[in-house]
Amino acid sequence: MTAAKAPPADAPPPVPSAPAVPPVRTAPARRRLTPYWLLLPGVLWLLVFFALPMVYQASTSVQTGSLEEGYTVTWHFAVYGDALAEYWPHFVRSVLYAGTATALCLLLGYPLAYLIAFRAGRWRALLLVLVIAPFFTSFLIRTLAWKTILADGGPLVEILRTVGLLEVTALLGMTEGDRVLATPLAVVTGLTYNFLPFMILPLYTSLERIDPRLHEAAGDLYARPFTAFRQVTLPLSMPGVVSGTLLTFIPASGDYVNAELLGSTDTKMVGNVIQSQFLRVLDYPTAAALSFLLMAIVLIMVTVYIRRAGTEDLL
Amino acid sequence: MTDSTESGDLRLTGISKTYGGSFTAVHPLDLTVPHGAFFALLGASGCGKTTTLRMIAGLEDPTTGSVLLGDRDVTRLPPYKRPVNTVFQSYALFPHLSVYENVAFGLRRRGAARVRERVGDMLDLVQLGDLAARRPHQLSGGQQQRVAVARALINHPRVLLLDEPLGALDLKLRRQMQLELKRIQTEVGITFVHVTHDQEEAMSLADTVAVMNGGRVEQLGAPAELYENPRTTFVANFLGTSNLIGADVVSAGGGEVVVTASGVRLRLPAGRCATAPGADGRLLVGIRPEKMSLVHRDEADSVPAGRNRFTGTIAAAGFIGVSTQYLIDSPLGPGVEVYVQNIERDPRLTPGAEVVVHWNPEHSFGLDAAQDINSGVETAGDPS
């Protein structure tokens, strides 16, 4: 900000070019300010729709009162402890479901992105369109469709049961009995499905940037195809892995639609609690505190993750 | 995978590559590169030289034929099992690894011993010892090129393949790296197969040059042999510059061929004719521009007897320091090129002057007149 204010303060001194040509002096000054004018709409937007709501939310979280008497700021920080104590299982579920979904997205998305980037040839553009194609249908409709796909006794569930996969997921605590709908598995499935494109696209972008001759060079230097992948392609695609996992994990951990539509009361995530506190219970301070807690947890996890991934110099 | 204890030639027998059943990049080709040779594949882009190299490396499967190293058929071996390493065009260094790890890559894959020592020695050989910790993007083009050579050479391949290794460097650096490559090759004694489109590079580096055109080897031989006795118009024009003159054979015998071109009698040695004169008695007479001399018409008498000569007019003169390049228009045709060394410059030799061009008949060569006379001329747009 000091840098922004400096130019006007310096503007008068350029006297050397003085002798009676004052209009010339103002033009460069105006030109110097142009970038800041161009920044203005964006800054205003952030101020009104990000900074102010954050401040408002923060103040809401430390208010006490009731709907009838109105809320006042009383710096009631205890609300954070209370919220965490009461809803910690929801936090655990949020992190667990979002984490599992992210891992599944990576497992499904990486081979697909690899295929599109290196093997698809002239089908590349078509495959990319197909990755994005689901977005042409409403998010809600697609999630509701999964309700039908995972319905009790439906063909998919029958297959999973016959193959014996449901017993495995039951052991992991992901399903119960012969059901898939209204279990953690259903919620994770929905999250995985909905966020898969956010994993594939950054992965594709970073894989596509890798010079295929690097893979050839690794082979030329005695690396078997898998070693070449592990030593060269994978490390070079880490920026895509990191941004893909972030773009999947962060929104998935705050999601409530999948848990709402595909889960049960036992699979509620923090998002569901926040939603009901805001819109049904009308306990605004608790809802705001939960939002901040979620944000803090995600922020800490992301920071640790990026540090450990060590991809700063590749980003 | 052995450490160069075995010796043996690199042999390509009947090797060819066809893409999609229609486009033939390399026509069936037989080639033997002696052990320890510096061999250059020279040609314009799209002539099949890089495809040939990639087939030796195992990066491309030949449609027919086989690749032999010594007595061992390696045609079906994947690249990672071939005792052959490549210096890629624009290097393909691993951007996420340091110079040290780039060079150590091949050794680590094979679980070699004394990695630190060997990488150190190799980096010293290419004079990059103090840059081991850097990443490739922190190096200049010339330094990257040396890392690429070191990375391949440290594995003691039976054959080192170089795909336009100097193509990305500027002219001055390229000259310097040519000397460096030659020094390294002499030092390590490994067979080098060098692909380039730069004829000077090929001639200055290689013991043997194969000139490729349209997926075929046009001619193969020592640089001086190719330059002095080109057998096709492509080689004559692509390797240096040649003046090619269409002529009718008058007589042939006694080791000498006499021809006339637009009324000018020329003689050339029968031993330097690539083919016997055709049934129609036509022949292309070729002379290198630096073999010809130029005198002003007033001194036509000073030209010794027994030399080939014709009279013409200077159309253009270009001074380039060591020599002056003249274009001479004459009955033989427009634009005969003559290079005259700038020892004593005759001030009368300016455009418009009448001159006598003369040369030793021994310096002429003869080519089959049935070919495209402009094949391989660099200004021609389509290289194939």
UniProtKB/TrEMBL annotation, chain B:
Domain of life: Bacteria
One Gene Ontology term of the molecular function aspect: ATP binding
Protein family (similarity comment): Belongs to the ABC transporter superfamily. Spermidine/putrescine importer (TC 3.A.1.11.1) family.
Alphabetical list of PROSITE patterns matching this protein: ABC_TRANSPORTER_1, ABC_TRANSPORTER_2
One cellular component (GO) term of this entry: ATP-binding cassette (ABC) transporter complex
CDD domains tied to this protein: ABC_PotA_N
Function: Part of the ABC transporter complex PotABCD involved in spermidine/putrescine import. Responsible for energy coupling to the transport system.
Designated name of the protein: Spermidine/putrescine import ATP-binding protein PotA
EC number of this enzyme: 7.6.2.11
Top EC group: translocase
SUBUNIT field: The complex is composed of two ATP-binding proteins (PotA), two transmembrane proteins (PotB and PotC) and a solute-binding protein (PotD).
The entry's keywords: ATP-binding, Cell membrane, Membrane, Nucleotide-binding, Translocase, Transport
Alphabetized Pfam families for the sequence: ABC_tran (PF00005), TOBE_2 (PF08402)
Domain ABC transporter: 10-239
Annotated source species: Streptomyces inusitatus
Keyword Transport attributed: yes
Catalytic activity, as annotated: ATP + H2O + polyamine-[polyamine-binding protein]Side 1 = ADP + phosphate + polyamineSide 2 + [polyamine-binding protein]Side 1
Membrane found in the keyword field: yes
